Amino acid sequence: MKKEEVPQDKSSLSSIKMKELCYATDEKGNYTTALSTGWEPKTIALENSIQEVNERIEEANQNVKNGKASPIVYFMEVHKMDWLTLSSYVNMWKWRVKRHAKPSVFNTLTNKILSKYAEAFEISVEELKNFKGN
């Protein structure tokens, strides 16, 4: 797109006085950079993805409250992790981390194992152990 055609739609960036760097072509057809305050389709996509993340966090919270999932699931969603990412952080096999998502298994975990999760979630072991849902 041409430099003068770079979108300047209202977005979440405009509320914090930030602009996004984009590539465009100048009048000679050479690539250059231009600043954009936002682009409506991108803003809509971002808002939809944030809404989906918030819904997953709320679902995980309810599952912890109802005893269907351990706090690991909630904090994993809050930190926008998946099973593979979390397993990398705690240095355990993915199947083992998934197993720890069961409340019955979670309640038997040692403080040593819980401390790996607490460190990954940047909380204390006590916060992890005592989380029952918001």
Features:
single chain; coiled coil; Ni,Fe-hydrogenase maturation factor; mainly alpha; two-stranded antiparallel sheet; 134 residues; 434 Repressor (Amino-terminal Domain); 2 domains; elongated
Walk me through this protein's architecture.
This protein is 52% helix and 9% strand. A two-stranded antiparallel sheet has the order 1-2. The radius of gyration is 21 Å and the shape is elongated. The chain is mainly alpha-helical and 134 residues long. The chain has 7 helices and 2 strands. A hairpin with a 5-residue loop joins strand 1 (20-25) and strand 2 (31-36). The protein folds into 2 domains: 3-38, no CATH class; 56-130, 434 Repressor (Amino-terminal Domain), CATH 1.10.260.40.
Question: SSE string, helix = H, strand = E?
Answer: EEHHHHHHH
Task: Trace the largest sheet across and list its strands.
Answer: 1-2
CATH architecture descriptor of the largest domain: Orthogonal Bundle
Major pleated sheet: 2 strands, antiparallel
Cα-based radius of gyration, to the nearest Å: 21 Å
Shape: elongated
What structural class do helix, strand and pairing data support?
Answer: mainly alpha
Number of domains: 2
Number of helices: 7
* Strand fraction: 5-15%
> What would CATH call the homologous superfamily of the largest domain?
lambda repressor-like DNA-binding domains
Instruction: Please count the beta strands (DSSP E, at least 2 residues each).
Output: 2
Q: Output the CATH class name of the largest domain.
A: Mainly Alpha
Helicity range of the residues? 40-55%
- What is the averaged pLDDT score? 91
According to CATH, what is the topology of the largest domain? 434 Repressor (Amino-terminal Domain)
Low-confidence stretches: none
* End-to-end C-alpha gap: 47 Å
